[in-house]
Write a structure and sequence with these properties.
- The structure is a single chain.
- By secondary structure, the protein is an alpha/beta fold.
- It is 39% helix and 18% strand.
- The strands form two sheets. It has a five-stranded mixed β-sheet, with helices on both faces. It has a two-stranded antiparallel ribbon with strand order 4-5.
- Helix 4 crosses helix 6.
- The chain starts with a helix and ends in an 11-residue tail after the last strand.
- The C terminus is likely disordered.
- Bound molecules: zinc ion.
- The site of zinc ion has 7 residues, from helix 2.
- Zinc ion (ZN) binds next to helix 2.
Length: 233
């Protein structure tokens, strides 16, 4: 073994200690995210609506994007935060462009949308030690800074994962309170994954209750829709 090889081997060993050594999407060794999985996270705009609230998303919540999101949210793979920031930024930009262009959910016209984050439950905070969507949004470098803590939980809810659509809406019902600072603002609800839309509806209800307007929601990923990209769910 030459001195050069020895040095290179030592550097690789050192890197393996500080860097994740398996792709968060497919498990391939030596890369945080391999080229194929990076390509699977390339955003493609999609919009659908839940009870008249448009939802912009960038990725289908299945396959590689789903695995990367789960690795990020529940597998401690915070190294993929930058890779997820791009699709979130894309969804927010699409929402901004379309909602202000066409009038949006509550008729937001022209004004820049204020990003409003859905809060984590205390249990989720304890489990992760950070707010996953907030960390991604902070890396997304969107033009309008979000109003942090614009929504808060008025009671602790169960984790939405593993609940049926009916259970999800019951679990979320009247669980959020919006800051009075949202009054007369054109809000864009931001969440990581939208499945049934129950959380988005509850966030919209809370924002409207303090006199805020809801232009729509933006998410990194959305569960695949039956009946096409523009289907009502
Ligand atoms: Zn991969």
């Amino acid at each position: 073994m030459t001195a050069q090889t020895l040095i290179r081997e030592s550097l690789l060993d050192a890197a393996a200690i500080v860097l994740p050594v398996r792709c968060a999407g497919c498990g391939r060794p030596d890369r945080s995210l391999c080229d194929d999985c990076s390509a699977a996270l390339r955003p493609a705009a999609r919009v659908d609506a839940v009870s008249g609230i448009p939802i912009w998303s960038s990725l289908p919540y299945e396959g590689i994007p789903r695995r990367v999101l789960l690795a990020y949210k529940d597998g401690g793979r915070v190294d993929v935060v930058r890779a997820l920031a791009r699709p979130l930024r894309f969804a927010v930009a699409e929402a901004q462009r379309e909602a202000t262009g066409r009038g949006g959910g509550d008729g937001a016209g022209g004004a820049a949308l204020l990003p409003v984050l859905v809060p984590s439950t205390r249990a989720a905070w304890r489990r992760r030690g950070y707010h996953p969507t907030r960390a991604v949004l902070a890396r997304a470098h969107i033009l309008v800074p979000p109003l942090w803590r614009a929504l808060r939980l008025s009671r602790q809810t169960a984790d939405q994962a593993g609940l049926t659509a009916t259970e999800r809406s019951g679990n979320r019902e009247s669980s959020l309170v919006a800051s009075p600072r949202l009054a007369r603002r054109d809000c864009l609800i931001v969440d990581d994954i939208v499945t049934s839309g129950a959380t988005i509806l509850e966030a919209a209800r809370a924002i409207r209750a303090v006199g805020g307007r809801v232009a729509g929601a933006a998410a990194i990923a959305r569960t695949p829709l039956r009946g096409g990209a523009h289907a009502q769910t």
